[in-house]
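Annotators were shown the component list below and the corresponding predicted structure, then asked to write short factual statements about the assembly.
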Amino acid sequence: MTTQAAPNKLISGATGDWEVVIGMEIHAQVTSNAKLFSGASAEYGGAPNDHVSLVDAAMPGMLPVINEECVKQAIRTGLGLEARINLRSVFDRKNYFYPDLPQGYQISQYKHPIVGEGAVIVDVSPSERITVGIERLHLEQDAGKSLHDLSATESHVDLNRSGVALMEIVSKPDLRSAEEARAYVSKLRTILRYIGSCDGNMEQGSLRADVNVSVRRPGAPLGTRCEIKNVNSIRFIGQAIEVEARRQIGILEDGGAIAQETRLFDPGRGETRSMRSKEEAHDYRYFPDPDLLPLEFDQPYVDALRAQLPELPDAKRARFIEQYGLPPYDAGVLVMERAAADYFEETAKGRDAKLAANWVINELFGRLNKEGLDVTRSPVSSQALGAIIDLISQNVISGKIAKDLFEIVWTEGGDPKEIVEARGMKQVTDTGAIEAAVDAVIAANPDKVEQAKAKPTMLGWFVGQVMKQTGGKANPQSVNELLKRKLGV
Amino acid sequence: MSDPTHLSLAEARDALASKQLSAVELARAHIDAISKSRALNCFITETPEVALAQAQESDARIARGDARPLEGLPLGIKDLYCSKGVRTTAGSRILDDFTPTYESTVSANLLRDGAAMLGKLNLDEFAMGSSNETSAFGPVVSPWRRAADPDAKIVPGGSSGGSSSAVAARLCLGATATDTGGSIRQPAAFTGTVGVKPTYGRCSRWGIVAFASSLDQAGPITRTVRDAAIMLRSMAGHDPKDTTSVDAPVPDYEAAVGASVKGRRIGVPKEYRIDGMSAEIAALWDKGAAWLKDAGAEIVEISLPHTRYALPTYYIIAPAEASSNLARYDGVRYGCREQGRDVSEMYEKTRAAGFGPEVRRRIMIGTYVLSAGYYDAYYVRAQKVRSLIKRDFDEAFASGVDAVLTPATPSTAFAQGEKGSADPVEMYLNDVFTVTVNMAGLPGVAVPGGLAANGLPLGLQLIGKAFDEETLFSLAAAIERAAPKIELPQPWWREG
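Structure shown to annotators:
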């Protein structure tokens, strides 16, 4: 709350600097087979109203029964957020009318959530790490979906999502820039995916954010906030914060006041617009759901779930630094996705870990990003990449050839060692052959030889020429040594 | 056999078992009685073909020695219980011609045990009422008449008025009912029948249209204590589909019916002697205590100091829950729909047309007490008072009392239109002795205590410890044995 932004986070307005204060409510769809209070499938997709039970459709006399797996997922997530797990929590009804809300109320947790305060460590950049406070996490039902474009005169309702379990993860207002907000959501997504409690798929709506934004003069009390509803990509979260902060600053600098309201971000127009004012806000008439007993479990239940948790990203990052001697930022990049971290560890096993990390981060991730592929669908397996790295380490191929080899394995597949053999990609370590090439280059460029004597950095040009002559296969170290000797630099 | 509708449920069971009577004969006798008794307006939907088909199966089972506990016994089902494939209305226009694809757990339990379903019984709309006058399907009439003005149509109580009237008029051997603030016990008291409101959690609420979820409980209305014990045994039990139902074995309640009450301590709460209690009710209460004493029980005065807050507290909690429970009747997925220019107008028109005045009143009260700024003053305080009411009972039972004896209602039944038309609170006062039991989640039974001077039945109420229905059955049976037998008037309501 009192955290003050570093000067470089401030936004400069016409009348001075402003600090933006951001809190987030993330809705994460719980990974489970069935819905929160019914046995219907929670799977994404399906024909409209395929995954709807009597309970989801709120037929008369139907009662909710809690899905224990959803409770476990919430506890696991709470543990991943270093948060207090409440052994007793209460489900409340949040009452409002909407056609995609069949019961006329959403079952949620209001006063007594299943998870209390926690913290998330977020790496904003290679040099900046912040801690974001978690206020709470609670379980609630998702609503269905209204479809307005199937008919000119009527709306249709698809209840497939109605009753699917969501975790609402509420942060403290600890974020001070769009960049921090993006990094926070990205880290939260990483944690959820490690735990397996949410697939983090923002396109399918498994992860949605309500963003609370306010601005103030540095050090001043908190300003009036606006809530931007349902932002569904990390990029849009950043954009929405930036335009909303600018909007608020504009109003304040013109002598106006911010009205507390709910707004929507329109990515097409790059603006936020009012959805409803505070006066129009619903009175949700929360009260404890009398159909459900308070949710109670004991500490051993929590401890058993903790014991089964996988190694989480922060711990894995620390281990990578310690065990593999990686720079913290590289370690952080490698642990972003559990599958990628596993890939790295398979690749690094018994090899030069730093070399492996470089190859995974630069070549592999670069290529995967370009193709929009997930690491689990990488055409180059960790074994194949390991084999490529082995060929480099054993001086069989040069780094440059290795990149070509990676490209071949990526597009054509095959065993790297066999490819190198079959295509004559082996590095030339025969000094005689290299010397012949060096001599030829020297003989052909007497003027450059003269220049090189005065300016030893010219050596690089000679190396390039020799590599060209040898089709890139000459061992760069040998080329270097020979050139130095022969040119006398 | 002369007229099998004059048998009690237990007697009919025995007659079927000994093959003095067939299930089809028994069903036909009731179907015939129902068809000639439409003046009482007990049934919203009659299902004679269902009952006959079930009776045929029962006869086959009895013939091959494979009878179930309720084999061939025809019952009425309160139309708040969802019946698979049979229109279910909750006494409301808003459900229109809603036909569930599922059977409520409690009615399914009865069918599993061999009972036959004669039809769906009338009730106050969404079980909100104490006289059955709020039903969208017209008021139910009691078979009882006042001696002085026999033409006045007497109410059967509510909300389970169809159940109480049908059982009293011998249109079914027993009926299911539900009780949120007295809706089983008050109609039973008004019609000289036995009504049992079991402990909260004893019966599943799954498939019963919800009124106030923390108070609603299913139970039977029958003509004898034994019959109620037989029915409850089949109705009760744990249901994984209702997490508020309790996973505890269901005792053989019938075995408790003859049990001795010697040495039982019966508490008589002084706070129930309310201002303006009629001498007749006070005398009935004293008689009830005397009958139990004669049977060997000990009578002690107890104090339940928060009793006087129970009624206002109930009329906060029940409407609050109802306002939320009834939000699902919005015209979107089932039931009636009135078109509007937009969805808000569709909601407003649908709910204005679909709900009657009493339901609308309670939705508005409930919405008000839950709204921002009033929640703490009303709902939160009401919940605190509710805990105090429960604690009163806990302390009484902890002091060694086995059960509590009170009158069931502050008066005998009244005639249609006599109460509540000017002031709804006048009607709400009917529940003054019964709501505490729902607030505390305890079991209660109403048992006939004789006739008042006006010729209408009077009832006594026994309140027990949680899940100690057995003690209630033994005490109610003792009162039943001691109380004067009440004779139903000649069946004036019968056609032909």
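Statements collected:
1. Chain A has three domains: 7-305, 311-422, 431-487.
2. Chain A touches chain B at residues 54, 57-66, 93, 95, 97, 99, 102-105, 155, 157, 283, 285-287, 289-293 (CB under 8 Å).
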